[in-house]
């Protein structure tokens, strides 16, 4: 028997398999199979991976969700059609049904709550063995009713915050009001924030703090008040953005996000010296760096896949650990997805790179999570200012920054600040390579270790031997609005369409 977790119906569907020894057999995003970015539905190919004797766990508790259907009117003010279509339609264990056939209809054996699945994805993959002194924090747009949860070392809920007090929801509303795609372009706003000034972040805090709390036990009393408050709050956000540049609006919401997140982190510290952190908001690398630099935790582990797709692994891990009594699964790296067999020659890759400056890598198992870490990557010669060239290839805005992938032993020579192998922090650049440095002098660094599990390490070593530079530009092998390539055929089609050599 295997322990299977899946996330579906809302945003960024995923599927994960953990065997009886706690090994992760496979963890995949639906978008990589369908080609639809953040696809909320499992594909038939994914469903065919499940066996009759698998124990299947869903990533949300729909008994709780169904009681929250009256949220629909309030959330409608945000204009998130997928939220309305998927999130607020009644479903039930054993027969997930809805009129638009959004879900697969997959029968499941167990379910856990939305924030439990985020927490489990962080907690059960942590690198330290003992759970003592460990606290888990999740911050997300919206679970069944919660936006923030704090759990103890046994994943028992200690504290929580309910909607409408959700930094995830209001960050997304800012994305929408500035003309970007909500629930997709949040990282665009984070990057844009470096170009602006915090013009209305303090007002944001005051209005946010004045929002009425939602009480799921008293829906008739609180729904209208909450609905009206959310509606007025959204109007206020829109009005501020009309008076401000997009850069200043981005800076304002980012500063408030940092304020909100740090407050929750400090609260979590009361319950443990080691932090596990998950949920969609854990992708905010600027805030993550501030958490690290607080220096109040002995260890910090951010779920490498903190999104809803990553919650599929959380659901599987929770099921496995509940059944076996273990409190961790075996996490080695993020290369858990579809495999492209073969071993591209690092020397040939570097020879091409030195001549053409940009090429793709599509080899080994696909990354599980939002970052390309070398197996589905577009890499570039960092010595040249190729930022505009790569952004043009990827059809992205020119202000968008790129990440440096650097050999582990050289990190301190080139960067000052927090770094790790999953690109979860930003650090100050101590070098002059503009192609991997943001306008504020920072970079989202990928540390490439000797045992990283990807050909990228060998490519870096060969590149260093030829140039004396231990890092390359690394970004995902996709274009804006599309998922990373998944199979060898995807890579060939990508190469043919975008005229960039892909080594596979």
Topology summary:
Elements (H helix, E strand, L loop, with lengths): L2 E5 L6 E5 L5 E6 H5 L9 H4 L7 E4 L3 H6 L4 H5 L4 H7 L22 E2 L2 H10 L10 E6 L6 E6 L5 E6 L4 H11 L8 H7 L8 H9 L9 H25 L2 H24 L4 E5 L6 H10 L4 E4 L5 H17 L10 E6 L5 H11 L1 E5 L1 E4 L8 E5 L6 H8 L8 E5 L3 H4 E2 L10 E3 L12 E2 L2 E3 L7 H12 L3 E6 L11 H11 L3 E2 L1
Parallel strand pairs: 1-4, 4-5, 6-9, 9-10, 12-21, 15-19
Antiparallel strand pairs: 1-2, 2-3, 6-7, 7-8, 11-13, 12-14, 14-20, 15-20, 16-17, 17-18
Helix pairs in contact: 6-13, 7-10, 7-11, 8-11, 9-11, 11-12, 14-17
DSSP summary: helix tally: 18
For this structure, the quaternary state is single chain
Q: In percent, how much strand structure appears in the residues?
A: 15-25%
Main sheet attributes: strand count, strand direction, barrel closure: 6 strands, mixed
Helix content: 25-40%
By DSSP, the count of extended strands is 21
Notes on the protein architecture:
The protein is built from 18 helices and 21 strands. It has helices spanning 30-34, 44-47, 62-67, 72-76, 81-87, 114-123, 167-177, 186-192, 201-209, 219-243, 246-269, 285-294, 308-324, 346-356, 387-394, 411-414, 456-467, 488-498, and strands spanning 3-7, 14-18, 24-29, 55-58, 110-111, 134-139, 146-151, 157-162, 274-278, 299-302, 335-340, 358-362, 364-367, 376-380, 403-407, 415-416, 427-429, 442-443, 446-448, 471-476, 502-503. Helix 9 (201-209) crosses helix 11 (246-269) and helix 11 (246-269) runs parallel beside helix 12 (285-294).
Key features of this structure:
six-stranded mixed sheet, alpha/beta, globular, 37% helix, 504 residues
């Amino acid at each position: 028997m295997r322990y299977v977790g899946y996330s579906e119906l809302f945003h960024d569907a995923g599927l994960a398999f953990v065997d009886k020894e706690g090994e992760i057999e496979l963890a995949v995003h639906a978008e990589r199979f369908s080609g639809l970015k953040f696809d909320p539905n499992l594909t038939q190919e994914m469903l065919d991976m499940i066996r009759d004797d698998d124990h299947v766990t869903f990533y949300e508790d729909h008994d709780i969700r169904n009681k929250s259907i009256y949220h629909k009117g309030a959330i409608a003010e945000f204009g998130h059609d997928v939220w309305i279509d998927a999130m607020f339609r009644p479903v039930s264990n054993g027969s997930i049904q809805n009129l638009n056939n959004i879900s697969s209809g997959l029968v499941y054996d167990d379910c856990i709550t939305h924030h439990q699945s985020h927490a489990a994805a962080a907690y059960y993959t942590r690198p330290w063995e003992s759970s003592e002194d460990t606290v888990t924090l999740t911050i997300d747009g919206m679970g069944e009713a919660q936006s923030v949860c704090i759990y103890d070392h046994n994943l028992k809920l200690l504290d929580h915050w309910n909607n409408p007090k959700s930094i995830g929801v209001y960050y997304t509303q800012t994305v929408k009001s500035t003309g970007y795609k909500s629930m997709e372009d949040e990282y665009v706003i984070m990057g844009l924030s470096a170009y602006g000034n915090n013009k209305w972040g303090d007002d944001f805090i005051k209005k946010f703090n004045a929002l009425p709390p939602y009480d799921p036990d008293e829906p008739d009393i609180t729904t209208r008040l909450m609905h009206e408050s959310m509606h007025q709050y959204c109007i206020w956000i829109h009005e501020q953005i009309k008076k401000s540049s997009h850069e200043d609006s981005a800076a304002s919401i980012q500063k408030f996000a940092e304020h909100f997140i740090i407050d929750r982190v400090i609260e979590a510290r009361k319950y443990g010296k080691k932090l596990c952190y998950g949920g969609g908001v854990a992708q905010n690398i600027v805030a993550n760096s501030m958490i690290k630099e607080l220096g109040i935790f002995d260890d910090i582990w951010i779920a490498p896949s903190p999104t809803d797709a990553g919650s599929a692994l959380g659901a599987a891990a929770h099921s496995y650990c509940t059944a076996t009594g273990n409190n961790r699964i075996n996490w080695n790296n993020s290369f858990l997805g579809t495999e492209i067999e073969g071993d591209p020659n690092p020397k040939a890759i570097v020879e091409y790179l030195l001549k053409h400056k940009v090429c793709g890598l599509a080899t080994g198992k696909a990354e599980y999570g939002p970052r390309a870490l070398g197996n589905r990557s577009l890499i570039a010669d960092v010595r040249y200012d190729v930022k505009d060239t790569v952004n043009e290839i990827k059809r992205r805005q020119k202000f968008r920054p790129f990440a440096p992938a650097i050999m582990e032993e050289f990190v301190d020579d080139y960067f000052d600040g927090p770094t790790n192998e999953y690109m979860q922090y930003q650090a100050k650049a101590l070098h002059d390579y503009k192609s991997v440095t943001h306008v504020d002098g920072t970079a989202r660094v990928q540390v490439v270790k000797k045992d990283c599990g990807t050909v990228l390490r060998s490519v870096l070593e060969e590149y260093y031997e030829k140039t004396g530079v231990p890092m390359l530009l690394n970004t995902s092998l996709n274009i804006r609005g599309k998922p990373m390539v998944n199979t060898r055929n995807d890579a060939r089609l990508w190469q043919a369409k975008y005229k960039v050599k892909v080594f596979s």
